[in-house]
Amino acid sequence: MNLGVFQKELEETFRRNGFESPELESAYIVSEITGVPYVELPLFRNRPLTPEECGEGRGYLARRLKKEPFQYIFGWTQFRFLDLKIGPGALIPRPETELLPELLIRYLPAGARVCELGTGSGAISLALASERPDLEVRGSEVSVDAFRWSERNLAALALPNVRFFRGSLFEPFGDEKFDAVVANLPYISPAERDFLPENVRDYEPPEALFAGDGGFALIERALLEAPAHLRERSALFFEIGEAQGERALSCALRTGFFTKAEVLPDQYGVPRFLAAYREAQASRVLTEIRSSGQ
Q: What secondary structure does DSSP assign to the chain, as a single string?
């Protein structure tokens, strides 16, 4: 069987099972088993497939028909410029989260110290460390399963300026102080669980998705603890739910530590990030990003 025939077989199966984008679904699988970039597949439609490749592809198909995320099926995902190992137990990094390292990269001075809370697969910390080798990056993760993925990715990338620690939020850092703290903590209310897509609801770790108090409990705790771990001139960048902006701003300013706070949009225009600063020129980060076309 050649590549084109096999891809068509997968496409028809996805279509019969009601998938919205059967062409794309089939292309992802064929690209994975052959190593051909999915945009180049039409150029290789006559390429013969081995029985092993077909068997692997049908195995991926069976898992995908159960709505398992491709990232878990293939065992990897891309985040900014990195290919990361990923699997059950770790939250799959989203495209919008890629702006968090961008915010920090533009904000932080040379040689700064950063900590990430709830590092999961390590995506944010590893992106920061790889793109800014001058930074000293620390990450905490309470989940045993997620911590294993962050350690695997660190070992694979061999970045010398990152270390991960087991523990909740700031707990592993004692009295250490940082120039910035970053986090993508769970911010979905448990009441919203049934409205999530199956690939998220049934496969990704609930402890990385849901938090009490309407999804705000862990964010609030981290905001209140942050001042004790930040230096005099510092900043905080958190991903938040799109309806949590006002509450996040109020909580940040209520600490009495941050001199300014704002909610920044993601690349889709959705209010997505809380930026809180203990300095005067808080808006310069967003201004620079907009002027550079990011």
A: -BHHHHHHHHHHHHHHTT-S-HHHHHHHHHHHHH---GGGGGGGTT-B--HHHHHHHHHHHHHHHTT--HHHHHTEEEETTEEEE--TTSPPPPGGGGHHHHHHHHHPPTT-EEEEES-TTSHHHHHHHHH-TT-EEEEEE--HHHHHHHHHHHHHHT-TTEEEEESSTTGGGTT--EEEEEE----B-GGGGGGS-HHHHTTS-GGGTB-HHHHTHHHHHHHHHGGGGEEEEEEEEEE--TT-HHHHHHHHHHTS--SEEEEEE-TTS-EEEEEEESSS-TTHHHHHHHHTT-
